[in-house]
Write a structure and sequence with these properties.
260 residues
């Protein structure tokens, strides 16, 4: 565990290397957050609620999705895919780690660092500019945030494993990130979609990667429903991690680096 903790620390510290980039990334996130808030508030008009969301809930939804863009890598993640295509994965296999655990630790440090340099400041900025809601159940919301990252990482890693079968898997990744952005509730709250679409999504892991956290924060899910939602996040995380490990094993069996 000490080795994985060291990898996570390095991943965390790396995010502070380019603070100016982090600053402008945060400014960009706030700017587009303002545009998204304007669109959603226009949707509400004089209506007190839309699909169970108040205007305050909608503002909070936008703030949270902007806050977690970098930490959850919601616009895509190709790091492991690149190491496979370049042959660098051979060096990783020589390290005294399990490959999945190594990348999970590295990404955990990266996500935490991105939250510190970009996410946390935005959690202070958004309430100053708009009427943002405080979390209904802080403890359960924090647990949900951690599970949303873990579930999202497992999905991202699984998609990156396509590099073992394709010499250029970036196209597969782009399609996967588009589906993810829609299914996790980043583009629009899932409550705003038709019932049949939300029912179909309930059979996928995507809501567990962001939407569940938002619904817990704004209080759409409370009491027993909140605990059930977190339990479902945990179940999907375990399923995807097991699947990622299985696919990784199959991919490594067919891996060739420099003809080896």
């Amino acid at each position: 565990m000490a080795l994985y903790a060291a990898v996570a620390r390095l991943g965390f510290r790396r995010q502070f290397a380019y603070m100016q980039a982090a600053l402008w990334g945060m400014v960009t996130n706030v700017f587009f957050g303002a545009l998204r808030i304007a669109v959603l508030l226009a949707l509400f008009g004089k209506q007190p609620q839309v699909a169970g969301y108040t205007a305050q809930d909608a503002v909070t939804y936008v703030a949270l999705t902007q806050v977690f863009i970098a930490s959850f890598s919601l616009f895509g993640w190709y790091d492991f895919m690149r190491t496979v295509h370049r042959g660098e994965v051979a060096g990783d296999l020589l390290r005294p780690f399990g490959l999945l655990g190594y990348w999970a630790a590295q990404d955990a440090g990266r996500a935490a660092g991105q939250f510190v340099v970009r996410g946390a400041p935005m959690l202070l900025i958004f309430p100053l500019l708009w009427d943002m809601k405080a979390p209904e159940n802080p403890f359960l919301t924090v647990v949900s945030v951690l599970l949303a990252w873990a579930c999202g990482f497992a999905y991202r890693f699984l998609v990156n494993c396509a590099a073992f079968w394709s010499p250029d898997a970036v196209g597969i990744g782009r399609f996967a990130w588009a589906v993810w952005g829609l299914g996790c509730g980043f583009l629009m709250p899932l409550a705003f979609f038709p019932d049949w679409f939300r029912t179909a999504l309930n059979f996928t892991p995507f809501p567990a990667m962001l939407n569940t956290t938002v619904e817990l924060w704004v209080g759409v899910k409370t009491g027993a429903a909140a605990w059930e939602a977190v339990a479902l996040q945990l179940a999907w995380t375990v399923v995807l991690l097991v699947l990622a490990q299985f696919v990784l094993s199959r991919g490594l069996n067919r891996l060739e680096v420099a003809g080896g």
